[in-house]
Amino acid sequence: MAAVQKFDHSMIERYLRARSLKFLRDSDGDFIVQFSYNDEMGCSVDMYLMVQGQQKDIYSVWGVSDRRIPKNDWGKAIMLCNEWNKLRRWPKAYLYVKDPATDTTGSIRLEYQIDLEEGIHQELFDDFTSSGIDGTFAFWKWAHQEQGL
Question: Distance (Å, rounded) from C-alpha 137 to C-alpha 133?
Answer without folding.
Answer: 6
